[in-house]
Design a protein that fits this description.
single chain, 299 residues, Tetrahydropterin Synthase, Chain A, 3 domains, four-stranded mixed sheet, four-stranded antiparallel sheet
């Protein structure tokens, strides 16, 4: 046996009727013994001890049968073990009955949240980062969860931490190469990779991973300031590149319109001056201060 075997168990109400009947039979036997004992005392005879023994044994049987009752809520299972041997798992909710000699181990089948602690690890480029993840999981195979690992909740927690560490070491925090997935940019891809690795690690515990996502991702405090300045510098450079590209396009459009509409004829020197002035106006981070030239460019 390496996987779960489902069993139904007997209905609790039907076995309750049987148990009550057993108690009534035992009580009737004891009542017969009392009557026989009174009659034997009057006749100076020995009472029928078989009735006493039978009544006591039948009532003891009823009490023994009472130990077999148990209840199951939705998304809950009971692992049945008889003298160390696995008998099966009851998943059907309600009031059930099983062999009173069975050990009944309760296991919740509901979804559980594992909110991992913040871990300090190095990313693919060796930068120290802080990372944490939340994992939604549930028990899928009660046999594996009970017998293949020791304390499956602790097993899932440790394996989750190990998977998060391995994930952080496999990807760069940010600023990856062309088309490279990073921890910051590839949220969906990172979540899918984490879920797959976790599922592979906890499969032997009979656990199913429903979802795994990063909840915290940041540079470590000792380098956070430096990395923030780097990000700001890169943002400024990217913005400047966009501004220059847009300014060049606008200057080109202006020169084209002036030429095609024959508004003014510009030689190469005047074009260069106009391009310079327009780029200063469009790329400057302050408002332009116009200067009126009353003469010419050559005087």
């Amino acid at each position: 046996m390496s996987h779960e075997k489902q069993v139904r168990g007997l209905g609790g109400w039907a076995m309750l009727a049987v148990t009550i009947a057993v108690f009534l039979i035992g009580a009737e036997l004891l009542r017969e013994f009392v009557y026989s004992a009174i009659e034997a005392d009057q006749k100076h005879q020995t009472p029928n001890l078989y009735l006493l023994v039978s009544g006591v044994l039948v009532i003891a049987l009823g009490a023994f049968l009472c130990n077999g009752f148990f209840t199951l809520q939705p998304n809950e299972g009971r692992v049945l073990i008889l003298f160390g041997a696995y008998q099966g798992t009851v998943r059907e909710s309600g009031w059930r009955w099983t062999n009173p000699l069975n050990t009944k181990k309760r296991i919740s089948l509901r979804a559980r949240n594992l909110n991992g602690d913040k871990l300090k690890v190095n990313d693919k480029r060796g930068n120290p980062i802080e990372i944490a993840a939340v994992v939604v999981w549930r028990v899928h195979d009660t046999f594996q969860a009970s017998f293949d690992v020791e304390k499956f909740e602790e097993y899932v927690r440790i394996q989750s931490e190990s998977a998060v560490r391995h994930l952080a070491n496999s990807y760069a925090y940010d600023h990856g190469e062309a088309n490279e997935i990073t921890l910051r940019s590839g949220v969906e891809e990172i979540s899918a990779a984490l879920q797959k690795e976790l599922q592979d690690r906890v499969a032997k515990a009979g656990v199913q991973i429903d979802e795994a996502r990063l909840t915290h991702l940041a540079y470590s405090p000792e380098i956070a300031g430096v990395m923030l300045r780097r990000q700001q510098a890169e943002a400024i450079i990217a913005a400047r590149q966009m501004i220059v590209h847009g300014a060049v396009s606008m200057v080109q459009m202006a020169l084209t319109d002036l030429t095609e509409n024959k508004i003014v004829e510009l030689d190469e020197e005047r074009k260069a001056t106009m391009v310079s002035n327009l780029l200063v106006v469009l790329c400057g981070d302050r408002d332009a201060q116009p200067v009126i030239n009353a003469g010419t460019l050559y005087a």
